[in-house]
Design brief:
Blueprint (H helix, E strand, L loop, with lengths): L4 H11 L3 H8 L4 E3 L14 H8 L6 H4 L5 E3 L11 E6 L6 H7 L4 E7 L2 E6 L2 E6 L5 E6 L13 H12 L13 E4 L2 E4 L1 E6 L2 E5 L7 H8 L13 H4 L9 H10 L34 E5 L6 E5 L5 E3 L10 E6 L3 H9 L11
Parallel strand pairs: 1-5, 2-14, 3-15
Antiparallel strand pairs: 4-5, 6-7, 7-11, 8-9, 10-11, 12-13, 13-15
């Protein structure tokens, strides 16, 4: 993002009213817009398991799976090694936060390259611009990004998320903060303009200077997904605008659900059997891993996404870990025993 230091400091001062940015201000650190690290010169690299699939013809080459300008992540100490299974534990469907935190992707995210610097960097997007009044934001997708099934990510997915997902009250009773803004006590819907296949602009009725911070904090999209985007080619088959509503109701009934809208979740929670990555292995994703054994499976299994759009500074396509397993438990003493036996590598502490 291109901006001047005065604007950045103004955002930091405004954000001091929020919990997240208040901690930064309290430490005396100014919020800054950070440049993404650059990869080292040389060819891209991939996990050996993916290389085997390329050689057998089951996958395209790594440079064809990554965007033209992938997100570059600087390792904390050094580049990791490929392979292995990360063993974790979970309580089932209700214990979604821990697995989701491993998967979460935002359009814009926080970065702390050193202990005294906290700033924002474009993550899923290549960059964003905003006008002087913070009423217009233009977002640029990384050209060539692909969903986990290999299909292209384009602004068709943005349009679908906005017009058919957020603007369908049966699916989304209360639209995301990305779509609506409270102005003079009333919610006002923003305006979406699709510029081209990789560029879109959102115009708000009033200044929205905290939007990049809010995106970094809360995302605003499907669970674990970047905001403004959903896999349209897959999800249109479950939307009454594109599919027969009677057949959708029959599908819902086969899953013991009251009607087609419940396929998308309950009261807008976005945790239905079709649109929640945690329970639907068929849903194309943008995350480092993709569910292969859904919750409440024992274990819940996630395997690497061969089209993941991030690399480290040495050009290694991420993630390093091949597979993540969440073993199902109901008794805390069982979990403690597993930990003592070395069966669990790490588990997020319960809130």
């Amino acid at each position: 993002m291109k901006t001047d230091r005065r604007a950045i400091l103004r955002w930091s001062a405004i954000a001091g009213a929020s919990t997240v940015a208040a901690g930064v201000a309290g430490a005396g650190n100014a919020l800054t817009a950070l440049a993404a690290p650059a990869p080292q010169a040389g060819s891209l690299k991939e996990a050996p398991s993916l290389g085997d699939q390329v050689r057998s013809g089951r996958l395209p080459a790594v440079d064809q799976r990554l965007p033209a300008n992938p997100r570059v992540v600087k390792p904390l100490e050094r580049a990791g090694r490929y392979g292995g299974t990360w063993h974790r534990a979970y309580l089932g469907l209700s214990d979604r936060v821990g697995p989701t935190k491993l998967q979460e992707e935002q359009l814009i995210e926080w970065d702390a390259p050193n202990p005294t610097t906290l700033g924002l960097v474009p993550n899923f997007i290549e960059k964003w611009d905003q006008n002087a009044t913070a009423t217009e934001f233009t977002f640029y997708l990384r050209a060539g990004t692909k969903w986990s099934d290999g299909s292209p990510v384009t602004t068709d997915d943005v349009r679908f998320w906005w017009e058919d997902y957020q603007m369908t009250p049966e699916i989304t009773p209360a639209p995301s903060f990305l779509v609506r803004q409270r102005v003079n006590g009333e919610y006002v819907i923003a305006k979406l303009d699709i510029i081209d296949q990789n560029t879109f602009k959102v115009t708000y009725a009033a200044p929205y200077p905290l939007l990049p911070i809010q995106i970094a904090k809360s995302g605003g999209g499907l669970p674990a997904f970047p905001g403004f985007i959903a896999p349209s080619a897959y999800l249109t088959q479950f939307h009454p605008k594109y599919a027969d509503v009677n057949q959708l109701n029959q599908l819902a009934a086969s899953k013991n659900l009251p009607g087609w809208a419940a396929l998308w979740g309950t009261a807008g929670d976005q945790q239905g059997p079709i649109n929640w990555w945690f329970v639907n292995p068929d849903l194309p994703v943008l995350n480092p891993w993709k569910t292969t054994v859904p919750a409440p499976g024992d274990p819940h299994v996630m395997e690497r996404n061969p089209y993941y759009w991030q690399v480290d500074t040495a050009g290694n396509q991420l993630p390093y870990v091949d597979r993540v397993e969440h073993a199902l438990y109901q008794d805390a003493q069982v979990l403690n025993l597993w930990i003592a036996q070395g069966k669990i590598d790490e588990r997020r502490a319960a809130a």
